[in-house]
Design goal:
The chain is of the alpha+beta class. It has one domain. Helix content is 18%, strand content 47%.
Length: 165
């Protein structure tokens, strides 16, 4: 019985992970957002003595709409203050009508988003795995310490967001 449960759990985890897709970082130009459009900034990781990286979840206002277009967009951002050079990376997670709730732990983010389904508004759960990218970001960000300016760290996170929901 234990082996059947273990196998079922393994298959479920494999199926869930298989549904995750790569999400590439935004270019420096794509990441330029008017500051006044920021509705909320949630800090997922604060800089500390060991690691000077800040990870934020941003909720950005998409502006008014006369149709049924999503009114917000959610972004995951990384920033590292360097002594002489900084590093950044940003990812578009999903457009939505509302961020209902979120939780995060160990590089995994779970979002509850209000989305428009076939029969009206529904709450959709979106999973984001940024653990591997966070390690990559930290390693790459350390290499720009001696350079001036802000350097873009390229990479990918994983998300199961389905834009055709």
């Amino acid at each position: 019985m234990k082996s059947v449960l273990l196998l079922a759990t393994l298959l479920l985890n494999t199926t869930l992970y298989a549904a995750m897709k790569d999400v590439a970082n935004l270019s420096s130009e794509e990441a330029q957002i008017e500051m006044a459009r920021a509705q909320n900034v949630f800090t997922l990781k604060k800089p500390d003595e060991k690691n000077n990286t800040r990870i934020n979840l941003l909720v950005i206002d998409n502006g008014g709409s006369t149709d049924v277009s999503p009114t917000i967009s959610l972004y995951l951002t990384f920033w590292k203050d360097g002594e002489m050079g900084d590093a950044t990376s940003s990812f578009l997670i999903a457009p939505s009508f509302s961020l209902v709730d979120f939780s995060h732990k160990n590089g995994k983010l779970t979002l509850k988003l209000k989305q428009l389904g076939e029969k009206g508004f529904v709450t959709e759960t979106v999973q984001v795995d940024y653990a591997d990218f966070a390690k990559h970001f930290e390693k790459e960000a350390d290499s720009v310490e001696s350079e001036f300016g802000v350097e873009l760290v390229e990479g990918k996170i994983k998300s199961d967001y389905n834009p055709g929901f």
